[in-house]
C-alpha cells in the first residue's frame, strides 16, 4: 500500500492488482497533480478508506477474491464516493451493469491515459461544482415528504433516514427538483448534470433514473414521482418547496 503524497487536485484511490497498470496509473495521476493511494484488493481498499480521505476511487473489475462489481455494489450501499470502473470488457451491457450497481463512469482497457485523467477531472469537477453551485443557489428542498440538501449532497427519506446515492444519481435528482413540472429530455439532463462533458453515454440517464426510482418511488414498477414522457424524456411531478 503506497502512502498518498501531497497533491492539489484530489486524492485518488486506485484499486488494481495488475502491477504494470497500477504503476502507470499512479505515475500518470501524480504527474497531473493528484494525490494517489493504491490497493490491490477489496480488503486493502477498505483499509485505505478507513484511514484516508479519498475523493474518487478508480476500481478494476477483475480483482482477486471479491471482484470489482461486488466491491462497487458494496461501497455504494454506504457511500456516495465517486467510482470510475476499469475493465477489459467492452460490451455496452457491461457498461450498463457497472452503472446499474452504482459506478459513476466506466473506462474500457486498453485506455488512453489522457482520456482517463480527463474523465477523472470531469467527474470530480461535476461532483464539486454542481454541489457547490446548487448549494449557493438553493437551500434544502422538500418533495413528497423527501428532503434534499444540495450543499451537503444529502437525501433524507420521509422517515428521516439518509438514503445513499451515487454522485450522478444525486445530480440527476437535484436537476429534476430544480425543473419540477418540466419535461426534460435525456440530452437536457446530460447537459444539466454533466455540463456537456464528453464521456457519459446517453443511455446512462435511463439507468440513473431507474436507480432513483428504486429509492424514492412508492412503487418503482409504477412510478408516479418521475414520469416517462414518450419521445420526450422525463417529468418530475411532485411540488418542490424550499425548507
Explain how this protein is built.
- With 243 residues, the protein is of the alpha/beta class.
- The protein has helices spanning 19-31, 42-51, 68-76, 92-100, 113-137, 167-178, 186-194, 203-216, and strands at 11-15, 35-39, 56-60, 83-87, 105-108, 141-143, 146-149, 154-156, 183-184, 226-229, 233-236, 240-242.
- Strands 2-1-3-4-5 form a 5-stranded parallel sheet, with helices on both faces.
- Strand 10 (226-229) and strand 11 form a beta hairpin.
- Helix 5 packs across helix 6 (167-178), helix 6 (167-178) packs across helix 7 and helix 6 (167-178) packs across helix 8 (203-216).
- The radius of gyration is 18 Å and the shape is elongated.
- Residues 1-7, 131-137 and 196-200 have low confidence and may be disordered.
Brief characterization of the structure:
The protein is of the alpha/beta class and 243 residues long.
As a percent range, the share of strand residues is 15-25%
Mean pLDDT comes to 83
Number of helices: 8
Largest sheet: 5 strands, parallel
CA(first)-CA(last) distance: 45 Å
Shape: elongated
Q: Kindly report the spatial arrangement of strands forming the biggest sheet.
A: 2-1-3-4-5
**Poorly predicted ranges:** 1-7, 131-137, 196-200
Give me the count of strands: 12
- What is the radius of gyration computed over CA atoms, rounded to a whole number of angstroms? 18 Å
Order of helices and strands: EHEHEHEHEHEEEHEHHEEE
What structural class do helix, strand and pairing data support?
alpha/beta
Residues in helix, %: 40-55%
Amino acid at each position: 500500500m503506497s502512502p498518498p503524497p501531497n497533491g492539489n487536485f484530489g486524492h485518488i484511490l486506485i484499486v488494481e492488482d495488475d502491477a504494470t497498470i497500477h504503476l502507470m496509473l499512479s505515475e500518470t495521476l501524480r504527474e497531473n497533480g493528484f494525490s494517489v493511494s493504491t490497493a490491490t484488493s477489496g480488503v486493502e481498499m477498505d483499509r485505505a478508506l478507513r484511514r484516508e480521505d479519498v475523493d474518487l476511487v478508480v476500481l478494476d473489475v477483475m480483482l482477486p477474491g471479491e471482484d470489482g462489481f461486488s466491491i462497487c455494489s458494496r461501497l455504494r450501499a454506504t457511500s456516495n464516493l465517486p467510482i470510475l470502473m476499469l475493465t477489459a470488457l467492452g460490451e455496452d451491457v457491461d457498461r450498463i451493469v457497472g452503472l446499474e450497481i452504482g459506478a459513476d463512469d466506466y473506462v474500457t482497457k486498453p485506455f488512453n491515459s489522457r482520456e482517463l485523467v480527463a474523465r477523472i477531472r470531469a467527474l470530480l469537477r461535476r461532483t464539486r461544482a454542481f454541489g457547490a453551485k446548487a448549494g449557493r443557489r438553493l437551500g434544502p428542498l422538500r418533495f413528497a415528504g423527501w428532503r434534499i440538501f444540495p450543499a451537503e449532497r444529502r437525501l433524507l427519506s420521509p422517515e428521516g433516514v439518509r438514503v445513499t446515492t451515487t454522485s450522478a444519481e444525486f445530480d440527476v435528482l437535484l436537476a429534476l427538483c430544480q425543473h419540477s413540472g418540466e419535461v426534460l429530455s435525456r440530452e437536457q439532463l446530460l447537459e444539466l448534470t454533466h455540463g456537456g462533458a464528453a464521456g457519459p453515454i446517453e443511455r446512462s440517464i435511463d439507468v440513473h433514473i431507474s436507480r432513483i426510482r428504486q429509492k424514492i418511488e412508492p412503487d418503482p414498477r409504477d412510478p408516479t414521482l418521475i414520469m416517462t414522457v414518450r419521445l420526450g424524456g422525463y417529468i418530475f411531478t411532485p411540488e418542490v418547496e424550499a425548507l
